[in-house]
Design brief:
Elements: E1 2-6, H1 13-22, E2 54-58, E3 60-64, E4 69-80, E5 83-93, E6 98-108, E7 114-123, E8 129-137, E9 143-152, E10 156-165, E11 180-190, E12 195-205, E13 208-219, E14 228-229, E15 233-237, E16 241-245, E17 248-253, E18 256-260, E19 263-265, E20 269-280, E21 283-293, E22 309-320, E23 325-334, H2 339-342, E24 361-371, E25 375-386, E26 396-406, E27 415-427, E28 431-434, H3 437-440, E29 462-466, E30 469-481, E31 484-485, E32 491-507, E33 520-536, E34 539-543, E35 546-558, E36 599-611, E37 616-628, E38 654-661, E39 666-674, E40 681-691, E41 695-704, E42 716-726, E43 731-740, E44 745-756, E45 760-771, E46 780-791, E47 795-806
Parallel strand pairs: 15-47
Antiparallel strand pairs: 1-2, 2-4, 3-4, 4-5, 5-6, 6-7, 7-8, 8-9, 9-10, 10-11, 11-12, 12-13, 14-17, 15-16, 16-19, 17-18, 18-20, 19-20, 20-21, 21-22, 22-23, 23-24, 24-25, 25-26, 26-27, 27-30, 28-29, 30-32, 31-32, 32-33, 33-35, 34-35, 35-36, 36-37, 37-38, 38-39, 39-40, 40-41, 41-42, 42-43, ...
Length: about 800
């Protein structure tokens, strides 16, 4: 073995080889075949030094002084500035200033690109040369091969009979064609322009030609951002007919870009769409602009879209003040509230996560958020833009401020925390919701704004979901709790809290509102001190097969009655589901506008079994008692929150839950609420899920008793199912459906199939979802079909077709 180091400029040819093929390494080019070659470990390199020094190792090194040639033969390794070249033989001719390498050439650059070849012959100034039997594997898993590559004028490289792919070769059959590849008779790379020009190119799937282009060009893959046209997209909808989108991307500067996406429609002309983005060191923002000069505004006769020009603006941004604080905004402004839905500019969410329709509103907000070690601050002003036309019933929230903090030091031996909430909102028109069959009858709309009878909207017929006017509330609450265990193993947790609310409600005297709330300007201060004690006594049983813990739990809470119960607005505490998850909550209301009062005792038992071989069972059963004072859940407010909840009686309904996981594959859970007197089931949910290597399924059954005080006049029963099957290594079929057992029909469903791997995406989804209409119209059941195809590093496109009909 011999080694030598030289500093002559001629031996920079090794680096020339790297440069000559650096662009080639990620070029969509050509090759006749790819084989599976697991990437071997990179050779150990000496420390990189940019001083012109080169290390050459070989079995034999010959100096031909007469012909001015240096030859390295046998296991040649050349190292220079983090780049290595391996070959059977390397010859450098000092007279012609050319570097010639032969046999099993393998070059690895500092970025991880690996180039294979049989022959390399290049000039030391990098202007001319050729490479035979070229193959390149890049760090980002793209691959390229060509029978020959010729470089001239120091700028142009021509690849003959080349193939490019971003797919890995088949491990089991290396000669098998990749999933897709691009072949070209000639591929010309202009290094100055960083562009690739393909001549007589064809796209193949599994070796079968699928598309032919006599000529096309694209930026080389070393370019992360370059101006040019993107793949088109297709969409259809009743309002505008068929549409095709042809995006153009403009790389304005390293920190900003824009995309222009005109959508040419068959019925309404051209919808212009522009998106501008800019990034800074501490954040980024983007702006979307939409506009269309409609050809047929008569298609929207009698609707807000019955105008010639329609437009929209959508913007968002976020910036960091430091490592703890960020501020940002979201903003939407439209010519009319139907614009987004008419042109399907608001996108569907994941159809398999849940049954969500197209968004019914957009959020414009300005926010400031800070996160500490044990604290959180959030302040924002929010404007909800309704897509359904009920803008006067949507509140403007400006501002809403939340601050929570847990003191790091113990106080009186326990943990002390406090939180503050400030909310100010304004609504123009009251929001009524029917709770009787008569009120819900479209021919007798007692609970709509079209009813002229001011006494029509009464608490026996309607709920007041949103009050008209301005509502301001400041809430501050301090909490303390401490846990200790006595010598018998009993766990005692005393706790105390005090809460204060300052409320100002300026309620408009609109028809029917006075039946629910006092109209005019009202100021109120509300205090709620609380003390309580929680007791737990866990019993532990250890067996050879596992450990079981049975834990009786009792909780006693002492406090005065809820001040002004049911006589104040309720905007954020309208949802209440009583189950084991909130059995031991000190305040079971979901928001700040209601506060639980009166003495209460919560009792129950929790049992957990953990099996040594995996798996567990966890169950809980309990009940809540109103010991003294006013039961807040028996008091009707503007939304009847608490009524029909199971907590409205002195003795609550029984609540129970059971969860069983025998292993990581299966999970089963049951939640139930039973009438305290009759044991009739008022609420029941059961979920079963299985997750295997190739398929998964989840089924949820729900059975809910009528809750007439909340507007649910009949029993509800249904089944929601979702699942996916991996039919092949990369093929997945998935779907979901909701079956209304009372109506005995499937009212919503989604199905889809897709192929996904590291180089190719193919997906198709069919979705049904509800789109809510303006005014009192019933929701429309929308149908949408979405198709997507993508070739990694080449292009991606999609098409959407949707329609809607009133159900």
């Amino acid at each position: 073995m011999a080694a030598f180091g030289v500093s002559i400029s001629a031996l920079l040819a090794a680096l020339v080889v790297v440069s000559a093929l650096d662009v080639v390494a990620s070029t969509p080019a050509a090759a006749q075949a790819f084989t599976y070659n697991p990437r071997p470990p990179k050779p150990v390199r000496p420390p990189a030094k940019n001083d012109g020094q080169m290390l050459v190792q070989a079995t034999e090194v010959d100096y031909d002084y007469n012909n001015s040639r240096i030859s390295a033969v046998g296991n040649v390794q050349m190292f220079y500035n983090g780049t290595s070249v391996e070959a059977d033989k390397v010859i450098y001719d000092q007279k012609t200033k050319r570097l010639h390498a032969e046999g099993n050439i393998r070059m690895t650059d500092a970025e991880g690109k690996i180039t294979y070849a049989n022959i390399m012959d290049l000039s030391d100034d990098y202007r001319d040369g050729f490479v035979d039997s070229l193959r390149v594997d890049t760090e980002d898993q793209t691959r390229m091969a060509a029978t020959r590559a010729d470089r001239s004028s120091g700028n142009y490289t021509v690849f003959d009979n080349g193939v490019y792919t971003a797919c890995a070769p088949c491990k089991d059959d290396p000669k098998k064609p990749p999933l897709w590849q691009v072949k070209g008779a000639r591929i010309i790379h202009n290094q100055t322009e960083k562009m690739l020009y393909f001549e007589n190119a064809q796209l193949e799937f599994f070796g079968v030609p699928m598309a032919y282009l006599p000529y096309f060009s694209t930026p080389d893959p070393t370019v992360k951002r370059k101006s040019g046209f993107l793949m088109p997209g297709f969409t259809t909808y009743t309002a505008f007919g068929y549409g095709v989108e042809i995006p153009y991307y403009w790389a304005i500067a390293p920190d900003m870009d824009a995309t222009f996406t005109p959508r040419i429609t068959t019925k309404q002309g051209v919808l212009l769409q522009t998106e501008f983005r800019q990034r800074f060191v501490d954040g980024s923002y983007q702006i979307r602009l939409y506009g269309i000069d409609q050809l047929d505004q008569g298609a929207f006769k009698g609707q807000p879209g019955d105008r010639q020009f329609r437009w929209g603006v959508d913007t968002k941004g976020q910036f960091a003040l430091n490592d703890k604080w960020v501020w940002g905004w979201d903003g939407v402004l439209l010519s009319d509230y139907f614009f987004m839905s008419d042109y399907r500019l608001a996108q569907y969410k994941d159809p398999f996560g849940s049954f969500l329709s197209l968004p019914t509103e957009a959020i414009s907000q300005l926010y400031l958020t800070g996160v500490g070690n044990r604290s959180f601050f959030d302040a924002r002003a929010i404007y909800y833009l309704s897509y359904s036309g009920n803008q006067n019933q949507v509140p403007v929230v400006a501002p809403v401020i939340d601050y929570n903090n847990v003191i790091n030091n113990n106080i009186l031996g326990g943990e002390f925390s406090y939180k503050v909430n400030f909310t100010n909102l304004t609504r123009e028109t009251a929001v009524f919701d029917p709770i009787t069959a008569q009120a819900a009858n479209p021919l007798n709309p007692l609970c709509t704004t079209t009813s002229a009878d001011p006494m029509a909207r009464t608490p026996s017929q309607c709920l007041l979901r949103g009050m008209p006017g301005t509502y301001t509330r400041l809430t501050a609450e301090a909490q303390w709790r401490k846990s200790y265990t006595d010598p018998l193993g009993e766990i005692w947790t005393p706790f105390a809290s005090v809460r204060a609310d300052a409320i100002n409600a300026d309620i408009s005297n609109q028809p029917g509102v006075s039946n629910f709330l006092p109209v005019g300007d009202t100021q109120t201060v509300r205090f709620m001190p609380t003390v309580g004690l929680e007791y737990r006594y866990p019993f532990i049983n250890v067996q050879p097969w596992g450990t079981t813990t049975v834990e009786p739990i009792a909780q006693v809470i002492i406090r005065p009655n809820e001040p002004y119960a049911g006589k104040l607005p309720n905007e954020d505490a309208q949802s209440l589901v009583f189950d084991t998850s909130n059995l031991f909550a000190v305040d079971k209301f979901s928001g700040y506008d209601r506060v639980e009062g009166g003495g209460r005792a919560n009792v129950g038992v929790q049992a957990t079994t953990q099996f040594d071989r995996g798996g567990s069972i966890k169950g809980m059963f309990g009940e809540s008692y109103q010991m003294f004072g006013l039961n807040s859940f028996a008091v009707a407010d503007v939304t009847n929150t608490g009524l029909d909840s199971g907590l409205q009686n002195p003795r609550s309904d029984y609540v129970a839950s059971l969860a069983y996981s025998p292993n990581r594959t299966y999970t089963f859970s049951v939640r139930s609420r039973m009438d305290e007197a009759t044991w009739n089931i008022n609420r029941f949910e059961a979920t079963a899920a299985a997750n295997f290597d190739r398929w998964s399924i989840a089924v949820t059954y729900g059975d809910y008793a009528a809750q007439p005080e909340l507007g649910y006049l009949t029993r509800r029963e249904g089944i929601l199912t979702s699942g996916s099957v991996k039919v092949a290594s990369n093929w997945v079929v998935q779907g979901a459906a909701r079956w209304d057992l009372e109506a005995n029909k499937i009212n919503q469903y989604a199905v889809g199939a897709g192929y996904v791997d590291d180089c190719f995406v193919l997906a198709a989804n069919y979705i049904t979802s509800y789109t809510y209409q303006a005014g009192s119209q019933p929701p429309a059941l929308s149908h949408a079909f979405m198709f997507q195809i993508g070739l990694r590093t080449i292009a991606q496109t999609s098409t959407t077709s949707s329609s809607a009909g009133v159900q």
